[in-house]
Amino acid sequence: DVYYKVTNSNFLNDKQITNTVNAEGKYTIDDKEYSVKDSDSETVSVEQVPGISIEKTQKITDNAPKNPGYVGEGDVITYTITVKNTGNTDLTNVTVKDVMKGKHGNLDIDQGNLDIDENKINIGTLEKEGKRVITATYTVTKEDISSDKHNTIANTATVTADGVNNDDSTVSIN
Length: 174
Hints:
Blueprint: H1 8-13, E1 16-29, E2 32-45, E3 52-61, E4 76-85, E5 91-101, E6 107-109, E7 112-114, E8 120-126, E9 131-139, E10 153-160, E11 167-173
Antiparallel strand pairs: 1-2, 3-4, 4-9, 5-8, 5-10, 6-7, 6-9, 10-11
């Protein structure tokens, strides 16, 4: 048996892998030398399977010392959004939508200021095994905090790309 290890370039550049074997030999009959040659090929289709994932984490900078243990007005929430291509082919039209439920301000993203009505980031193409990390910050407003100080700020990010199912990740902060 002979084995071939499929490489990343097979998935990205080829839809099929063709393996050709060549054999040749010589033999002698009655002091006369003869040559023989033969070859055979086998073609296998490469299945391209797109996949995408998103993970969102948060870190809070406590700027509201009056309420230790609770998120307060002026605290800064730093979100880290990691988008990964989990498939075996490049992804196109990769977009992250980030909508904060109950927010009353802007979410500042490292690619520029993102208004709450324009809540998407166009990544474009994400190569096989590629990832993109997006950092966003949000300053907690008075409107985010309820009178009982146990309000939850939920933030969901959703990633889409051509040919894959959407994925989302939500973080909640009390």
